[in-house]
Amino acid sequence: MTFSLFAAGSLKTTLPAFIEHHQQKTGEKWALTFGPAGLLRQRIEQGETCHLFLSADESNAKQLIDKGFALQYAPFIANQLCITARYTAVNKEDNWLSVLSNTALKLAISTPKADPSGDYSWQLFDNIAQINPQLSQALKMRALSLVGGKHSLIIPQGRMAAHYLIATHQADAFIGYQHYQAQLSQFPELKIFDIPKPFNVTAHYCATLIHSQAYSLYQEI
């Protein structure tokens, strides 16, 4: 039997090696499907076979529990946001807030409600309202939801959304997960900006047990 694992796309760089180790240790066979967590949750609700679901947020896990599609869930890692910008589009004096305030820059995010990263971006905009309500509202109107939706463009295999969107001039800046920072910093054409507390948003990744047969992997994660 081959088990089915649905996982947030942001786990694509690290999860396969972990699953390979688990397979060698237990003899279990796992098929991995990556994508935006919100869309993966919908596929589970529509009846697709999934034994274990790893989402980039707690909301999708809770929805599956509440609707009776899952048995239990637990957080397993945390993430935050950062801003990646085209190096030539920003100045040495710029910081995360000045980049977001620059209306000349095309700002991209993931698609809210379909991809948790997009929801986290909107939470960031809400946090900015503490100091600048007008900027908060303007960002919600300006931000382009270019990836992570049902009809969004597909990021080529092996490419990161931030680098791909900026390299293809579809965006000048992108709000994405902080764990990509080490990889993105290798590109001299990009500049990365940290978002400080209390404005940054913490993403709690959750493992959701859909079928009891997947309990051994669920426990290990």
TrEMBL record:
Gene3D superfamilies associated with the record: Periplasmic binding protein-like II (3.40.190.10)
Listed InterPro entries? ModA/WtpA
The highest taxon in the source lineage is: Bacteria
The cross-references to Pfam families, in alphabetical order and at most eight, read: SBP_bac_11 (PF13531)
* PANTHER family from the UniProt entry: MOLYBDATE-BINDING PERIPLASMIC PROTEIN (PTHR30632), SULFATE-BINDING PROTEIN (PTHR30632:SF0)
Q: What is this protein called?
A: Substrate-binding domain-containing protein
